[in-house]
User: Fold histidine kinase from Halalkalibacter okhensis.
Amino acid sequence: MDRKVGFFKSIQFKLIIIYVLIIFIAIQIIGVYFTKQLERQLVTNYFEMLDERANLLSFNLAQEMTKNKDDRSALTSNINRLLRDTFSLEQQSEVQVIDQNRVVVSTSNLSNRHIVGQQSTEVRVKRALLGNKFEDVLRDPITGHRMRVLAVPIKTDDGPVGALYIEASMEDIYSQIRQINSILLSGTFIALIISSVLVILVARTITSPIMDMRKQTMRMGRGDFTNQVKVYSVDEIGQLATSFNDLTMKLQDATLTRDREQKRLKSVLTHMTDGVIATDQNGRIILMNKRAEELLSVSSKAVTGQLLPDVLQLSDTFALYDLYEHSDSVLLDFSTKEEEYLLEANFSVIQEKDGPINGLITVLHDVTEQEKIEHERREFVANVSHELRTPLTTMKSYLEALEDGAMSDQELGPRFLSVTQNETERMIRLVNDLLQLSKIDSHDYKLKFEPIDLGLFLHDIIDRFEMIAQEKHITFKRKIPSKPTYAKIATDKMTQVIDNVISNAMKYSPEGGNITIALLHQGHQLQVSIKDEGMGIPRESQGKIFDRFYRVDKARARSVGGTGLGLAIAKELIHAHKGEIWAESEYGKGTTIFFTLPYYAMKEDER
Ligand code: ADP
Assistant:
């Protein structure tokens, strides 16, 4: 990500290349045009100058030649002088004067003196002697230099008297042009260097804000929005930088909002009492909250990426697309032999409007307790109906029998009536018990607690029972400390509890059995136990006898007049006293019912 752009790929380099090329091409075009023009100008000037001189010389020579036609030596020296006067400055030029007979009369080139007096072989001279001017540019075969070659006839009024042959080197002009070219070249070079430096500086002003923005985007990528890029100018790049800063701020806002939302969502998910599982469009788990982990006893790491129906153990019943359309909740049964465990799952599809399905949200909650309560409620209603139906059916059949004539029977009449009376009483007891339980359940009762010496309280109750127990030859044994032991209790309710337990003990005790009632003071608690020597309770039923309508032996319990609600009421009342109640029993040998109550340390002034 943080790769530096190589220099040859950079905008700077591209700009340098473009600028340098433009400058180079411009200078080249100007240079070529300029030198061409210059060359033409110089050459033209030179030609004109040569022409002028040649004309002047030919005119002078013509005069000289007519004047000194006969004096040959005077003529030669005059011609030499004229040549020297006119072409003295031309170093690499040669001017020859040729007479009518094509004999070289004079030459300006001292090293070429030997040709004087010889006949010229030049064709151009021949033509000039005929009166035609010749001019051309030729190359020196030895040096390769360009030369202006002129053959001018020397004319008098009588016609041509000779010719002037000029070879003038143009090398001066070309060396001048070469010099100018080299000046231009070095100028170009300097211009290129200077412009490159300038371009680098100019390019910097473009690239450095861009580099700044690039660095900022990388920081933003890492989540750092604190910096702003510097706005260098008010041009397009400056505007870009301003908009960029704007964008940074908006993005920061958006990121903050998103983070906040995410945190909120996360905390909602974490603290939810329902389990939540989110999947992708393929039904693979991508998210799971803590509660869902607890409910399914899995770790979210372990199941991330697994298919939802597999994790919910639904793959046998539902395919993934079934869940997409499943608007009702699904009950997941994870119960084992030992324990019941039920979860309810609700599914909702994540789908953009008219778009494809993006995933599925599953909400789980533990309905074990709810189902249990529901089950208990149904069972309770069934139990109540059953409990009421039995005495009612019995009564109905006895009443029918009475109606059919048993009433007039001396012996059967009163017996049948007493049975119906017993059943009515049982129903009343049952209804009373039910009412009391209903009051306890709806917390529609107030207990009036008062400190009582529990020992004395127990003695009173036992005294009362001893009277009845005589019939069954049951003996009560008391293990109650003589020292006053206080507890804060609602006496009427506690009487009901103890009555119920002792009457159970009596009901299920054999003739002549013992019932031992003990009171024990253990620290902050008082423990009361009522032990009988009766039939006992099987181990598996010991916890259940405190459930509503539970009876170990239904027929027997009913025959002794129990409603099956006594111990259930006792349990509720003991709990209301912040105590516990439980049973210990050895089947066939006897039962002990224990319950505890908080000890009340009575202050002196309260006694
Ligand atoms: P019930 O009115 O039928 O006695 P309880 O709630 O008082 O109802 O008792 C529930 C069941 O517990 C009884 O039906 C009986 O089977 C069993 N039970 C209670 N106490 C004793 C006991 N002392 N010995 C044996 N079984 C008992």
About this structure: Residues 500, 504-505, 508, 532, 534-535, 537, 545, 550-553, 557, 562-568, 591 surround adenosine-5'-diphosphate (CB under 6 Å). Residues 342 and 368 are 5 Å apart (CA to CA).
